[in-house]
Specification:
By secondary structure, the chain is α/β, with parallel strands linked by helices. The chain has one domain: 3-Layer(aba) Sandwich (Rossmann fold), CATH 3.40.50. The protein is built from nine helices and nine strands. Strands 1-9-8-7-6-4-5-3-2 form a nine-stranded mixed sheet, sandwiched between helices. Helix 8 links the parallel strand 8 and strand 9. The longest helix is centred in the C-terminal third of the chain and has 17 residues. About 50% of the residues are buried.
Length: about 300
């Protein structure tokens, strides 16, 4: 199996992404604040819903969130999905439609926790909440759990995988969309993709990371999964856009995981910006990436019933 797969940019996708990026650049590098949370949630609410998915409010491990139930799912498997938002924004409710698409493709129910957000609840509050939710799920009779997430949620998914890899074999896989793996911000693509990325600047990211970490060490493995223990991890599948300043976070993580002998694959999507998988409908790459993640998760859960 190929470990590094590059997907060419579809011409129709290129035209659509050019329009989206042109509209986004006016806000590129803008400082985020708590007041921007509703705007981010509204953006994620715009993901078109499926008509074969239902939602249920719940608390798992003391952490509130949502269960996402596809019409057809395995009874012995579940996905723990961790939302993005740079550790300072995002919610289970806003992400329910995106997770619905993934859960339906995976043929498994999913829990989306409302982990605590910074700066009110800085590191390691989110890490603790994610671990609490995972432990509670593992005590619910679920035989196979996979973890997935995007951006900051991808960070938390990979941190969780490292934290529990040496424990119960119940964690069968991890999938991440554009994960933040290095909070020291040492990736070269903060410079080489500085112009291509329509959303983020290194200075802006540094402020967001500071809001999350406070005085904590960015090299702490619970903050930067790139620095974590990678031996014993389950299979991992990562997708990232080639136009992202975060591209190097994915590339270096996969290179290091492969060096440890982990079953890892990186899909790089040419011309795609951060969050492209949520642009369902207007671009083909989004559907294709989610299809690939769905296939990966289905395989990790042992196939369809």
């Amino acid at each position: 199996m190929e470990r590094f797969v590059v997907h060419p940019l579809d011409p129709e996708d290129a035209a659509m992404i050019a329009r989206i990026s042109a509209g986004a650049r006016a806000q590129k590098g803008a400082r985020w604040s708590i007041e921007a949370r509703p705007q981010f949630d509204a953006l994620m609410e715009g993901v078109p819903p499926r008509d074969d998915v239902t939602f249920e409010s719940a608390t798992v491990g003391g952490v509130p969130g949502l269960w996402v139930h596809p019409a057809s799912s395995r009874s012995d498997a579940a996905l723990l999905y961790l939302h993005g938002g740079w550790f300072v924004a995002g919610s289970a409710k806003a992400y329910r439609h995106l997770v619905g698409h993934i859960a339906a493709r995976a043929g498994a129910k999913a829990f989306v926790p409302d982990y605590r957000l910074a700066p009110e609840h800085p590191f390691p509050a989110a890490v603790e909440d994610v671990l609490a939710a995972y432990r509670a799920m593992s005590e619910m009779g679920i035989r196979r759990i996979a973890v997935a997430g995007d951006s900051a949620g991808g960070n938390l998914a990979l941190v969780l995988a490292s934290g529990v890899a040496a424990g119960k074999a119940i964690l069968v896989g991890a999938a991440a969309l554009s994960p933040v793996t290095d909070l020291t911000l040492s990736g070269v693509t903060y410079e080489t993709r500085a112009e291509a990325d329509p959303y983020f600047t290194k200075q802006q990211v540094a402020e967001l990371v500071h809001a999350y970490l406070g005085s904590a060490d960015p090299s702490d493995p619970r903050a930067s999964p790139l620095q974590g223990r990678l031996s014993g991890l389950p299979p991992i599948h990562i997708h990232v856009g080639d136009d992202e300043v975060l591209l190097d976070d994915s590339r270096r993580y996969v290179e290091r995981a492969l060096a440890f002998g982990i079953d890892t694959r990186l899909d790089v999507w040419m011309g795609m910006p951060h969050g492209f998988a949520a642009i369902l409908g207007p671009i083909k790459a989004s559907t294709q990436a989610l299809d690939a993640i769905g296939t990966f998760l289905t395989d990790r859960f042992g196939g369809r019933n």
